[in-house]
């Protein structure tokens, strides 16, 4: 057993293939964490491993990287099975495999979990993914159906085994391990090691090397941590509001990619902030220049990646903003450690999309601190702060005028006498001129006039009548459709031929872009493509991300639809590309998905899996419900 931390300066020394080393460096990992340095060499040699390490210490890379190195991409069959306690973790681990293997051609990973279409999973399993990441219940379902082939598997990973024990899945895990034939490699990771888990280890990890890493991940008490739940499409506008209302001296904003550092810096500069990018593509001289400007108060905001900000220590940094949430908690701790140093106080703000709430909970567990939810500053708060700052600037400028003050006083008097204006009117006019680029009076939110609202309501009623009457080409209008947003029609390169349904589009856009469903307008499905209405002025970073987002295993390749707009509330379509009736209503689509389940598969997913187990094979003890159901 090893309880000492193995120190390895970089990933090059762990024996990983060059493609994987390049991927982790591009992601932002520089030095392997203790659990990574200790586990990767063991798993690379094909040995079994019993690892004890706190959540958020980089365990996913500890097993994903060495197992990826041992995968044969020429074989389209399952070679690695990873069991996780929840669907959220299953998705997270699968995404991590995909990120690490982005330069490995022919690699496929598939997450399988309860609550997701069994029919779709069966189709995806036939394509032969090399890595399966799943929850115990759904994996058992596939094993009983013989849809998951274990004969080609050579490695099994149990991630967060103590959580599976708490949720009542440890007997299921034991049964699943019995279905994977010998010889096989088993890696078990757990934050704690109760006796029940050690029993599983003794049965299935005979002779395994045990590694124990002491938990050190924690955050300092001098940092006030908050998060904002991303909603709508205006993530950049939300950042601007926060920057305007927070009393900050200097700030560092973290994003995931090098490209995002440049794009965000340009947008902040356009809004009047002194901002600069800081990423690994910049040469050392440029990086040092940005840091020195930050120290000398010539720069107030730095937008950085994890790699570029390692070791950055500037006293005046009062705020750290995680514009993109980090994938692991260790990175989060490193990020917010840029403020609150040497006993100083600091503020850490985290942007969290609905899909990323699992990452937020993991951060809270690892840091043993609760992160409080914050409300986005209102328009009134922004305006009030601008007025306050404007007054401060005016008072500060009086000292700059100096000896020229008499000249300008006389100029104002002459202007008042010649035009019969009051001094107050002249001052007000000059104040208006000074604030044009940064208005002190924010324009009111646009509202539809009553007549237009009545016409819209009439169209809603006509749409509902049309659906009841059989015209189902148009999806039902949502009652809460915002009245202050102009919608633009976008085209998605996936349609009925891929089994696409409106709920797939809404889920992909809402989860990947953090857009509330009420900001997603009409959806129309065709055989070869689909259209969706989204708010005008979608940020470039959102569109770039959505272009690569997959629905039904097909990239959306979303773009503005330049085709002719329908004039009769029905979609114009190419000949032979006809939308099929009844499937454009989102709720109707959900009903179809429920009805499409194979006979005998119940809505409860994993909860009902025990009722049809073969006698004597699966555990009979009732399990607690979990978030995977």
From TrEMBL:
<dbReference type="Pfam" id="PF03880">
    <property type="entry name" value="DbpA"/>
</dbReference>
<dbReference type="GO" id="GO:0005840">
    <property type="term" value="C:ribosome"/>
</dbReference>
<keyword id="KW-0378">Hydrolase</keyword>
<feature type="short sequence motif" description="Q motif">
    <location>
        <begin position="9"/>
        <end position="37"/>
    </location>
</feature>
<dbReference type="InterPro" id="IPR027417">
    <property type="entry name" value="P-loop_NTPase"/>
</dbReference>
<feature type="domain" description="Helicase C-terminal">
    <location>
        <begin position="235"/>
        <end position="382"/>
    </location>
</feature>
<protein>
    <recommendedName>
        <fullName>ATP-dependent RNA helicase DeaD</fullName>
        <ecNumber>3.6.4.13</ecNumber>
    </recommendedName>
</protein>
<dbReference type="InterPro" id="IPR014014">
    <property type="entry name" value="RNA_helicase_DEAD_Q_motif"/>
</dbReference>
<feature type="domain" description="DEAD-box RNA helicase Q">
    <location>
        <begin position="9"/>
        <end position="37"/>
    </location>
</feature>
<dbReference type="InterPro" id="IPR050547">
    <property type="entry name" value="DEAD_box_RNA_helicases"/>
</dbReference>
<feature type="compositionally biased region" description="Basic and acidic residues">
    <location>
        <begin position="444"/>
        <end position="474"/>
    </location>
</feature>
<dbReference type="GO" id="GO:0033592">
    <property type="term" value="F:RNA strand annealing activity"/>
</dbReference>
<dbReference type="InterPro" id="IPR012677">
    <property type="entry name" value="Nucleotide-bd_a/b_plait_sf"/>
</dbReference>
<dbReference type="InterPro" id="IPR000629">
    <property type="entry name" value="RNA-helicase_DEAD-box_CS"/>
</dbReference>
<dbReference type="GO" id="GO:0006401">
    <property type="term" value="P:RNA catabolic process"/>
</dbReference>
<feature type="domain" description="Helicase ATP-binding">
    <location>
        <begin position="40"/>
        <end position="211"/>
    </location>
</feature>
<comment type="similarity">
    <text>Belongs to the DEAD box helicase family. DeaD/CsdA subfamily.</text>
</comment>
<dbReference type="Pfam" id="PF00270">
    <property type="entry name" value="DEAD"/>
</dbReference>
<dbReference type="InterPro" id="IPR014001">
    <property type="entry name" value="Helicase_ATP-bd"/>
</dbReference>
<dbReference type="InterPro" id="IPR005580">
    <property type="entry name" value="DbpA/CsdA_RNA-bd_dom"/>
</dbReference>
<dbReference type="InterPro" id="IPR044742">
    <property type="entry name" value="DEAD/DEAH_RhlB"/>
</dbReference>
<feature type="region of interest" description="Disordered">
    <location>
        <begin position="441"/>
        <end position="480"/>
    </location>
</feature>
<dbReference type="GO" id="GO:0005829">
    <property type="term" value="C:cytosol"/>
</dbReference>
<feature type="region of interest" description="Disordered">
    <location>
        <begin position="555"/>
        <end position="629"/>
    </location>
</feature>
<keyword id="KW-0547">Nucleotide-binding</keyword>
<keyword id="KW-0963">Cytoplasm</keyword>
<keyword id="KW-0694">RNA-binding</keyword>
<dbReference type="GO" id="GO:0003724">
    <property type="term" value="F:RNA helicase activity"/>
</dbReference>
<dbReference type="GO" id="GO:0005524">
    <property type="term" value="F:ATP binding"/>
</dbReference>
<dbReference type="GO" id="GO:0070417">
    <property type="term" value="P:cellular response to cold"/>
</dbReference>
<dbReference type="Pfam" id="PF00271">
    <property type="entry name" value="Helicase_C"/>
</dbReference>
<dbReference type="InterPro" id="IPR057325">
    <property type="entry name" value="DeaD_dimer"/>
</dbReference>
<comment type="function">
    <text>DEAD-box RNA helicase involved in various cellular processes at low temperature, including ribosome biogenesis, mRNA degradation and translation initiation.</text>
</comment>
<dbReference type="GO" id="GO:0016787">
    <property type="term" value="F:hydrolase activity"/>
</dbReference>
<dbReference type="GO" id="GO:0000027">
    <property type="term" value="P:ribosomal large subunit assembly"/>
</dbReference>
<dbReference type="InterPro" id="IPR028618">
    <property type="entry name" value="DEAD_helicase_DeaD"/>
</dbReference>
<dbReference type="InterPro" id="IPR034415">
    <property type="entry name" value="CsdA_RRM"/>
</dbReference>
<dbReference type="InterPro" id="IPR011545">
    <property type="entry name" value="DEAD/DEAH_box_helicase_dom"/>
</dbReference>
<dbReference type="Pfam" id="PF25399">
    <property type="entry name" value="DeaD_dimer"/>
</dbReference>
<dbReference type="InterPro" id="IPR001650">
    <property type="entry name" value="Helicase_C-like"/>
</dbReference>
<feature type="compositionally biased region" description="Basic and acidic residues">
    <location>
        <begin position="567"/>
        <end position="629"/>
    </location>
</feature>
<keyword id="KW-0347">Helicase</keyword>
